[in-house]
Design a protein that fits this description.
Elements (H helix, E strand, L loop, with lengths): L8 E5 L3 H14 L3 E5 L2 H6 L7 E5 L12 H11 L4 E6 L4 H9 L4 E4 L4 H51 L4
Parallel strand pairs: 1-2, 1-3, 3-4, 4-5
């Protein structure tokens, strides 16, 4: 069930390479994102110039690298660099406080690792794609409406000029 058009980048950031590969395989079968995987938030931050559309970010990024930043720290920096990127936090923690903390700093959603995580991720990505389509359509509608207002103003001004310009001389 791949989408019709090629999408932008999706970053998968998890310090568990197996988790990254499984999620990459799952997403690549269903979507046409250009997928990049990272084992640390710091390495993903270096590629933010690629303007990822979606970032799947693990909450605990310092299990293998103790000096690595945690997911919320990386989330804050990512949202500063690219506020329009949608960040989905992925965590093994089933704690409401962690989800609230993530959402407070700009996460689009919070997914708990488990047997339903990948299907939930698919639903979220479909929602993000729909949101992106709606935003693009809205932007196009705004441009059309602006053009129409300019055209109507031009017609009104031209009408005034013709009426007063042509008939004004014969009074």
């Amino acid at each position: 069930m791949a989408t019709e058009q090629s999408k932008g980048y999706i970053f998968l950031v998890d310090d568990e390479p197996i988790q990254n590969e499984m999620l990459k395989d799952y997403i690549s079968e269903r979507f046409q994102y250009q997928i990049k995987t990272y084992e640390s938030g710091e390495s993903a931050l270096q590629d933010m110039h690629l303007n990822p559309e979606v970032i799947v970010l693990d909450f605990h990024l310092n299990s293998h690298l103790p000096d690595a930043q945690n997911g919320v720290e990386v989330l804050k920096k990512m949202k500063q660099l690219k506020p329009n990127s949608q960040v989905i936090m992925l965590s093994g923690q089933d704690k409401l406080e962690v989800a609230i903390e993530s959402m407070k700093h700009g996460a689009y959603d919070y997914v708990i690792k488990g047997e339903t995580a990948f299907s939930r991720m698919e639903n979220i990505l479909n929602n993000i794609n729909e949101l992106t389509s709606i935003k693009a359509a809205n932007s196009n509608y705004k441009k059309v409406i602006s053009f129409l207002w300019v055209a109507i103003a031009g017609i009104v001004l031209l009408s005034i000029f013709l009426v007063y310009g042509v008939f004004g001389r014969y009074k």
